[in-house]
Amino acid sequence: MPIDLSSDPAPDLASVDLDYERFRQLARNAHLSAHERIGFPDHYRDGLEAKIFADIRSKLPALDQKEKVIVDIGPGCAGLPRLLMDLCARQGHRLVVVDSPEMLDQLPDGSHVEKIPGRFPDNVEALQTAIGGFADAILCYSVLHYMFVDTNLFDVIDRMGALLRPGGRVLIGDIPNNSKRRRFFGSETGRAFHREFMKTDKDPVVTFLEPDFKKINDAVLSSLVARAQEAGWNGYIVPQARELPFSNRRDDLIIERI
Predict the structure, then answer these.
(1) What is the DSSP letter of 13?
(2) Which pLDDT does position 2 carry in this prediction?
(3) Is there a contact between 39 and 22 (Cβ–Cβ < 8 Å)?
(4) Rounded CA separation 29/4 (Å)
(5) Angle 218-230/178-185 helices, nearest 10 degrees?
(6) Which of 144, 152, 147, 145 is nearest to 170 (CA)?
(7) Domain-by-domain residue ranges, the chain?
(8) Please, what is the angle between helix 188-198 and helix 178-185, to 10°?
(9) Is the Cβ–Cβ distance between 52 and 60 less than 8 Å?
């Protein structure tokens, strides 16, 4: 029988294959913290959201400009979307947030904020209407690996890029890259990190040349960059700031409309 994540007081998040519908269940679970409702144990994000947001701002320069149209796809209900909402209010931006109704209900309302319920890109027409055609910046943070299970990533890239006005930029952030993870934990630096983090004297088990079922790797990210470039846009795989919790095994993807 499938686990009901809407009522389990302490679900084992590491053992559950999360997708759009299961995040809807997590959002309804009154036993969970805001971080747990977006799939993270508290200690993975506590005290780090300001640093994460600083890294996001460095990669989306439109956020620090004035009176732009900003989109956040899959913001969840923890601290990052609130930081974005506050910044957009100060800068005079219009902000459109896209997520399940259960997640959006937990975010504050604002005269500068419009909420579009549903799973992207199924609701792209409603989103395009809300932004008036085009956006200056689109953020999709720590979501792509769940989309990888739910939908066609080429369609995601196509739709996001088409929503940008010239000069606009998409940041698809915090993407678990299984190839990068293997490289890290196959190194002495990664083995030492594992022993310290797990409080063990055993090295991590690292296997190469095996299929990455349901996981994003170098090949997937490279194909997404190529897809963007074939559409006439710029695409880049970029590192996260070193102080971020998963920078040693996650990447960011930038798409830029020329």
Answers:
(1) G
(2) 64
(3) no
(4) 10
(5) 140
(6) 144
(7) 13-45, 49-177+216-256
(8) 90
(9) no
Alpha helices for 92-187 (secondary structure H): 101-104, 124-131, 144-150, 153-162, 178-185
Residue type, 100: S
Contact between 192 and 224 under an 8 Å Cβ cutoff? The reply is no
CATH number of 49-177+216-256: 3.40.50.150
Q: What confidence tens digit (pLDDT) does each residue in 224-251 have?
A: 999 999 999 999 999 999 999 899 999 9
Backbone angles phi, psi at 252, to 5 degrees: -115, 155
pTM over 0.90: yes
Are 235 and 229 in contact by the 8 Å Cβ rule? The answer is: yes
Please write the tens of the pLDDT for every residue from 40-88: 999 889 889 999 999 999 999 999 999 999 999 999 999 999 999 999 9
- Report d(CA 103, CA 26) in Å as an integer: 9
**Across the beta sheet with 94-99, what order do the strands follow?**
113-117, 94-99, 69-73, 135-141, 164-176, 250-256, 234-239
Check residue 15 and give its pLDDT: 84
Q: What are the residue ranges in the chain where pLDDT is below 50?
A: none
Report the distance separating Cα 159 and Cα 120, nearest Å. Answer: 9
Beta-bridge partner residues of 94: 69
- Rounded to 5°, angle at Cα 86 from 82 and 91: 145
Quote the Cα angle for 121-89-132, to 5°.
40
pLDDT value of residue 43: 87
How many Cβ atoms are within 10 Å of 150's Cβ, its own excluded? 16
Give the type of residue at 215. K
At 165, is the secondary structure helix, strand, or coil?
Answer: strand
Phi, psi of 117 (to 5 degrees): -80, 150
